[in-house]
Design a protein that fits this description.
- It is a single chain.
- The chain has 8 helices and 12 strands.
- By secondary structure, it is an alpha/beta fold.
- The protein folds into 2 domains: 3-123, Rossmann fold (3-Layer(aba) Sandwich); 133-226, Winged helix-like DNA-binding domain superfamily/Winged helix DNA-binding domain (Arc Repressor Mutant, subunit A, Orthogonal Bundle).
- The strands form 3 sheets. Strands 2-1-3-4-5 form a 5-stranded parallel sheet, with helices on both faces. A 4-stranded antiparallel sheet has the order 6-7-8-9, covered by helices on one side. Strands 10-12-11 form a 3-stranded antiparallel sheet.
- α3 (60-67) links the parallel β3 and β4 (75-80).
- It is globular and about 55 Å long.
Length: 231
C-alpha cells in the first residue's frame, strides 16, 4: 500500500490520522517540524504528503516550494479554516489539493484516494496510443502522459494533466466547474473554492512559456472552454 508522510506539529491529530489510514492499509509516518519533514519528503519513500501550513522551523509553504523544485510527489495541504491566502499560495506553488482544519478523517481519506488515483493515471500507460490530442499548439499524449507545446515539453502535476486532458477532449465545449471538480478532484464544487481556478492558472503559466496564444478561456458562472485555435 502507498506510504504517506504527514508533516504537522499536532501530534494528537497525527495519531488520529494514523489510525484512520491504518484501517485502509496505508503505511504512515509523521514529522512534527518543517526541516525534518522536508528531509523525509525528499527521500522518495512516500507516495503522498500531508502538509500543514503552520510548522515550527520551516513553514509548510517553504517546504512545498522546496519539494516542487525536485521530483514530483503529490501534496495535500492542511490549512486553517477560512485562510484563503495560504490555500491560494499553496495551489500556486503546486499543491494538488487542500483540506481545511478541522476536518473529518473520512473526508481526508477520500481526498487521499482521489489524489492517488490521479497519480496512478499518470503512471499507467493508456491502451490507445493513437488517441493523441493535438489541438491549438498543444500535443497531449495519454499513452505516455506527456504534454508538449510547440514541440517544447511541459511538466504538469497529476492534477493539472488530468484537468487539461478533460478540457482538450471537450475542445470547443464549455465544461462546468462542478463537472471538472467531480471528475478530476473527486469532490463536489464548494462555494468560494478556488482550487480549480488556481490549477488552471498554473497550466496557463506553464504553457505560456512557449506560446502566447490563449488556450483556456474562463467563462464566469459557466466553466472553462479549451479553444480550438485557428481554423
Amino acid at each position: 500500500m502507498p506510504a504517506i508522510l504527514m508533516i504537522d506539529d499536532d501530534t494528537g491529530l497525527c495519531e488520529l490520522v494514523a489510525e484512520y489510514l491504518a484501517l485502509d492499509g496505508y503505511q504512515f509516518s509523521a514529522a512534527h517540524d518543517g526541516n525534518r519533514g522536508l528531509e523525509l519528503a525528499q527521500s522518495g519513500d512516500y507516495q503522498l504528503i500531508l502538509l500543514d501550513v503552520m510548522l515550527p522551523g520551516l513553514d509548510g509553504l517553504s517546504v512545498l516550494k522546496a519539494l516542487r523544485s525536485g521530483l514530483y510527489c503529490p501534496v495535500l495541504m492542511l490549512t486553517a479554516r477560512g485562510d484563503d491566502v495560504d490555500r491560494i499560495v499553496g495551489l500556486e506553488l503546486g499543491a494538488d489539493d487542500y483540506l481545511a482544519k478541522p476536518f473529518n478523517p473520512r473526508e481526508l481519506v477520500a481526498r487521499i484516494k482521489a489524489i492517488l488515483r490521479r497519480v496512478e493515471l499518470t503512471k499507467t500507460p493508456q491502451p490507445a496510443p493513437n488517441a493523441i490530442l493535438n489541438i491549438n499548439g498543444l500535443e497531449l499524449n495519454p499513452y505516455n502522459r506527456q504534454l508538449s507545446c510547440n514541440n517544447n515539453m511541459v511538466s504538469l502535476t497529476a492534477t493539472e494533466f488530468q484537468l487539461l486532458e478533460v478540457l482538450m477532449r471537450h475542445a470547443g465545449e464549455v465544461v462546468s466547474k462542478d463537472e471538472l471538480s467531480r471528475e478530476v478532484l473527486g469532490k463536489r464544487l464548494q462555494m468560494y473554492d478556488r482550487s480549480l481556478d488556481m490549477h488552471i492558472s498554473n497550466i496557463r503559466k506553464k504553457v505560456g512559456q512557449f506560446s502566447t496564444d490563449e488556450k483556456i478561456q474562463t467563462l464566469r458562472g459557466s466553466g472553462y472552454l479549451f479553444l480550438q485555435g485557428q481554423v
